[in-house]
Amino acid sequence: MIKVHVLIGRFQPLHIGHEALIRRAHEDCDMLLILVGSANKPRSIKNPWTYKERRLAILNFAHSKGLDHVQVAPINDYRYSDSAWCSDVVETVKFFTRDQVTDITLVGHTKRGNSYLKYFPQWKYLEIETGIKLNATDVRVQMLADGSPLIPQSVKKDWLYFAKEARTFDGYPFPDTLSFQCADAILTCAGHVLLIQRKFAPGAGNWAMPGGFKNANESFFDCAVRELFEETNVRVPEKIMRKSLVSSKLFDSPDRGSGIPRITVAHHFNVEPDPDGSLPRANGADDAMECQWVSIADAMNDFDLHDDHGDIMQVMINAMAIPAYNNGRIIY
């Protein structure tokens, strides 16, 4: 029987507290499996570094300390489905242990935001206290405030965008009630989804659903339709588009974005191909520098989807239900 310790974290960035935790977790086991979260997320204020970059930092640290039985694997975010996230974790552990008889222990340090440590009652749990009081969020904020050269330029631009936003609304008399209302459009056709590539911060260069802020004189539905046509110029008559609504759903997670909360109502439209079997023509416009029809599977696996857009599409489009483990990802 092999003893496997499982350590879950985002390591944004890897800091001395993480390093101490890894060293302790490495003790008394045959394999330390480190699962790196948010592997499917593009660069942002919350996730400045890619999975590959974080994996390399962890392995370099392990090598420098002679930690010789460390494995590192990616775990995707499933913001609106804890069960899908748990399934991803379990299937990943199964992949690395294969048919071996194992004694699995989840290791970690209990703190605010680590409720996931209670999600796996089938495994043992080992609490590790390193004595190092350091929070990755505080580290990121300090690095951004200091203009650290280790922060990617796209993330610095996002930081400046949200800093300006905060200044604009500084002094708002009821800050706990302040939020923006948005609407997004998920347009599908013949197993494909129409994505736009964002032109400006935040998330410049990321792919996304067409969408934006709702005007005072329009409904969420009208906003979604307007933004869809403004950003894609899709060649579908508006009358047909309005009749092609499949479903709509509110997404109001306080973790959406990195600034003032953004509440959105996502609308799923489904249209038929053109008479010749082709997908309706579209081209990026307004806030979109490009738009593209992509297969639903490719959208989820191969595109840097902005913020929670991939999570929303997965909820809204049942056809996007894909295997929990290794969703097109390469295990290095």
Plain-language structure description:
With 332 residues, this protein is of the alpha/beta class. It folds into three domains: 2-136, HUPs (Rossmann fold, 3-Layer(aba) Sandwich), CATH 3.40.50.620; 139-168, no CATH class; 175-320, Nucleoside Triphosphate Pyrophosphohydrolase (Alpha-Beta Complex). The protein is 30% helix and 23% strand. It contains nine helices and twelve strands. The protein has helices at 16-25, 51-64, 82-97, 136-146, 153-168, 220-232, 238-243, 296-302, 309-316; strands at 2-9, 31-36, 70-74, 102-108, 124-127, 180-189, 192-198, 207-208, 211-213, 245-251, 262-270, 288-295. The strands form two sheets. Strands 6, 7, 8, 9, 10, 11 and 12 form a seven-stranded mixed sheet that branches. Strands 3-2-1-4-5 form a five-stranded parallel sheet, with helices on both faces. Helix 2 links the parallel strand 2 and strand 3. It is globular. The relative contact order is 0.15. The model is unreliable at 319-332 (pLDDT under 50).
Write the layout of secondary structure elements.
Elements (H helix, E strand, L loop, with lengths): L1 E8 L6 H10 L5 E6 L14 H14 L5 E5 L7 H16 L4 E7 L15 E4 L8 H11 L6 H16 L11 E10 L2 E7 L8 E2 L2 E3 L6 H13 L5 H6 L1 E7 L10 E9 L17 E8 H7 L6 H8 L16
By CATH, the topology of the largest domain is Nucleoside Triphosphate Pyrophosphohydrolase
User: What level of helicity do the residues show?
Assistant: 25-40%
Tell me how many strands there are. 12
Distance between the termini: 25 Å
